[in-house]
Amino acid sequence: MKKIMVLMRFAKGFGWALTVAMMLLSLGLITESAQARPLDLTLQPSPDMFSDAIEVNYDAASQMFTARGFAEHIKNGTDTPTQVINGQFEITAAISNSGDILSGTLTITGEVPSLGIGQGQLLVGNISALGYGEAGGAVEFQFDTSDGAMFTQFGPAIKVILGQSGFTGNFAQNFNNGAIGVAGIGW
Question: What is the DSSP string of 136-154?
Fold first, then answer.
């Protein structure tokens, strides 16, 4: 209470709005916004999977992030990409309004006949890190690999760089991209 009285006396000459803002700040009801924190991921040339037509949505009220699109092709030790048949790409994550990960998964399904892989899960992982920069920039994810036919090719960690995500610079407001996102998936 003593803190509030001092703040009120100090702010008296600066008007009502400043007084209220300072009181809320001192009580911890106003906090600094989350700072941009990119992971600065780089993908190795192989294996490298490409996904596109990714529809991204973030709902600030529910704190739910989704990115769904098509897994198109993979480079697996050759210069020529190998097509993924019926490939699907999906990230679902709970991300707080301050930009902290709460939970999330990556699931990539499809068939890669040239590698002898039938229809099913190609990669599955649990989110371990999230990075982002300024508005309009890429959103980066790292997942601990948990399953999938390509588990051994990608190793224990899957990196995803999601471009054209519609990211607005923070997770305090809704954003979406109109299904124009692209993603590089690698290790």
Answer: TS-EEEEEEEEE-TTHHHH
Question: Residue 173: CA atoms inside 13 Å, Cβ hemisphere, count?
Answer: 8
The model's confidence at residue 80, banded by pLDDT at 50, 70 and 90, is confident
Angstrom distances, CA of residue 177 to CA of 2, 12, 69, 183? 48, 45, 12, 13
Residue ranges per structural domain of the chain: 1-31, 48-186
Question: Which residue has tokens 């068939």?
Answer: 111
The whole-angstrom separation of Cα 84 and Cα 114 is 9
Q: How far apart are CA 103 and CA 96, in angstroms?
A: 10
- Which amino acid type is present at position 10? F
List the one residue out of 58, 44, 156 whose CA is nearest residue 101.
58
Q: Rounded to two decimals, what is the model's pTM?
A: 0.80
CB of 124 closer than 8 Å to CB of 105: yes
Q: What is the enclosing helix (H) or strand (E) of 128?
A: strand 117-132
Residue pLDDT, tens place only, 99-141: 999 999 999 999 999 999 999 999 999 999 999 999 999 999 9
Q: 124: Cβ–Cβ under 8 A, 6 or more apart, which residues?
A: 105, 106, 107, 108, 145, 146, 147, 148
Residue 28 CA to residue 174 CA, distance in Å, equals 24
